[in-house]
Structures are given as structure tokens and as C-alpha cells.
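Working notes for the structural subgroup meeting. M.R. asked for a predicted model of this chain before we commit to crystallization trials. I am recording the input and output together here so anyone reviewing the notebook later can reproduce the run.

Input as submitted:
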Amino acid sequence: MRIDRTLYISVHIPKTAGTSFKSSLVASIGSDYLFFDYNHSNAFSYLSLLGVAPEKLHKTWLLDKRFNYSTVEQIASSISPLTKFIHGHFPGRKYLVLSEFYKLNYMTWLRDPFDRMLSNYFFWIEQPDTVPDEFVRKIKREQWTVEKFCMHPYMRNYQSLWLRGLDIDVSFLLG
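Returned structure, recorded in C-alpha cell form:
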């Protein structure tokens, strides 16, 4: 049964102004109507336990359907019925299951790929050695150069990985 209600899904691709957008959402909509999904560290830990190599964690998490799909029951137990907006670090297709019940409007912010990659590199390099992401720890431990980071196959087309699997029929706003 489809509810005559729109649910906005905002995919926060790292280093594309998503944190600033999150602050704007809180100020304009109010936290009662927002759900923030930033639980990717748990997924990375799980993948590490499965033996996924550190440099493959992000791409596996973004592309492997076993780790990204949520059931209606899982989502319903996580978000409030008042929720109008979901925002966070998650693959875009994660909430597609809700299209049975809501009109979904997706949005994301994109950034010049090279600028985003440089920003990501310097952000990760400045993280503490205890950061939960094994890939970030590997980059720090091995003291990767900017060139090695940018040329790494798992960093190519990084922004598009977040949106993979979304149907063009879904309403979308790119900023």
C-alpha cells in the first residue's frame, strides 16, 4: 500500500558538502523529521571480519548487494514515522525498498572528482590512528602519497559508486 507522502533520500558522498547540508537540514526542517544514517563503520568492521582486504572495503560495501539492502522491517524499526528526510553515508539503493510505500525523491551533492579526491586524501591522513576504517589505517600506516591514493583503482569513479543501482525513473536532484 503506497502512502501519498514523499520521502527525501539524501546520499552524502564524502567530501561533497554533505556535512554543511546536514546542518542546513537540521536548521530548516528540525531533527524530529530527520533520520541520519552514518553506520558505515559497522559494515566495514563486518567486512574486515569476513576477510575483505582493506583496500576493497569501500568498493565492496558500495557495490555488493548483500551489504546494502535493507528490508522494510529493518528500516521501520530504525526511523520514526515522522521522518521526512533520510541523510547520510549509504549507497543510494539502500532505501529503494521504501518505494513501495512512498514517493522517493533522491538528492546528492557532487564535486569536481579531483578536488573531492584530494580533500578525501587529506581528511583521511589527518584521522587518528584508531579510526575504525581499516582502509584509512592502511593508507596512514603505509604512508601513501597523494599520487598513490589518486591512482588506486578503488578510488576511480568513487562518486558514481554511491549512486550505482538507482533507476533513472527515481526523482533526483544533483547539487
